[in-house]
Write a structure and sequence with these properties.
By secondary structure, the chain is mainly α. Helices cover 65% and strands 0% of the residues. It is built from 21 helices and no strands. It has helices at residues 6-27, 44-78, 90-98, 100-108, 121-134, 153-157, 172-185, 189-214, 217-228, 232-240, 245-260, 264-275, 283-295, 300-325, 347-359, 364-390, 396-409, 419-430, 434-446, 458-477, 484-488. Helix 8 (189-214) runs antiparallel to helix 9, helix 15 (347-359) runs antiparallel to helix 16 (364-390) and helix 18 (419-430) runs antiparallel to helix 19.
Length: 502
Amino acid sequence: MWVFSASGCRWLGAGGSLAAAVGGWFAGTLPVRGGWGLWERHGPAPAVAGALLAYLGLTLLVAAWWRYGVLLGREARGGNGKAVGGGASAGSGEAVRGGVLGTLVCWTVPLLLAPPLYSADVYSYVAQGAMVLEGHDVYGAGPSVLGPGDLGAEAAASVGGHWTDTPAPYGPAFLLLAAAVVKLTGGAVVPAVLGMRLIALGALALAAWAVRGLGGGPGGRAGALWLAVLNPLFLIHVVGGTHNDGLMIGLVLGGVLLATRGRWVLGSVLVGLAVMVKSPAAVALLFIGVMVARRDGGGARGLVKGLVLPGAVAGAVAAGATLLAGTGFGWLRTQSVAGTIHTALSVTSDLGLGLGLLLADDPDPVKDLVQKLGLAAALVLIAVLAWRSWRGLLDPVLGLGLSLVALVALSPMVQPWYLLWGTAVVASVAWYGRAGQVLAVLSAALVYETAPSGRTPWYGFAAAAVVAALGLLWARREPWRAGAAEDAGPVRAGSTGRPASS
């Protein structure tokens, strides 16, 4: 049937994206005020109808994306267009591979003018940018300090409850961008949100460019783009929700791509900027260091060089961005503020809270201990993956992706879109493998966890569980087996840190 072809997937997904966007006009995270008559709340009945339409659209988008991935997986398994699946021709395989960027455009365009979807975080970004312009300490107070006559007051009124008094956990580079958007738009909600979405689109373009550069061969590039940026989790939360995680991911991928090409200094600059958006990007410096060490011969001198120099370059970038922004170094003390907010997706927070309720009158100390143990375990896993990469047993780019996945899994605060940190990196070198397939299933499931309004209702978790179960059954019936990129793993001595091709 046509709908199961690559072309059918493109238009089915575009229809799903459009329905999700239209539903968002009635059920999205609409501003409390300042919607200019465009983004206005319409009452309970239209909100319910909009939510149903948005969920239907999301399901169509996920189904189209999943089917597209199946086609790419069969193409990868057949190799060079020999067996696309279902008796399809090599020409059909070329259509599948060659249409990813066009499909990305078709799925992205409907989201461009929609109100914020699935999260109210963008209102925090605008408010924090306004705080910088108004001279408030963005690392000492939350958006609630903005008065009625201040820039960004309308955005501050729409910030989610527990974030109203929370200091910014973001770096000065991102706050400079947010401040620039507020200055250009006068802080009005609609144009300011659209300005932040332009930044998200730039992040999408940067990530797509870097993924194409890191992917091996035409088939590899198509599959990498499919998992990294065509991913509904990316489109819904980075484009629709305008989360700054997309900018962090794009800068990290760009920096890693430059490092694999021998331009590690410039790559470290980009990663330094990524750290000045969100601090978890710092993990990439360790793996750029691995690439530097291996390129220098892998001895003690190369190891010291790799451990010190990328971090020194990124540190200089961080210091420069902080001084330029004029916000001070308060970002160093606010990196843990998000961890004080309990999220149900954090395994360590859930386990710590459960143990605390069982073992103590006050569960918080036990919860804090379990969270710290989780982060310690993540650091150990990251160190092991870096060591294996340095020894030539693992592609450093794949090691970075798996490290970011481990960090998210053991973090004290986990949001659905955090999965993208590692998924985009893994996709760029090993989309067609066990890790890529599992991350695809998790992406399809977690996109349901949050409602269009930004809330996390019980039925979102139920839908995610159903999708995860179906996805794992599919993965068991049609497992993806990687070649050299993942299963073989070892890196040739003297290489730039990328694995030998099969």
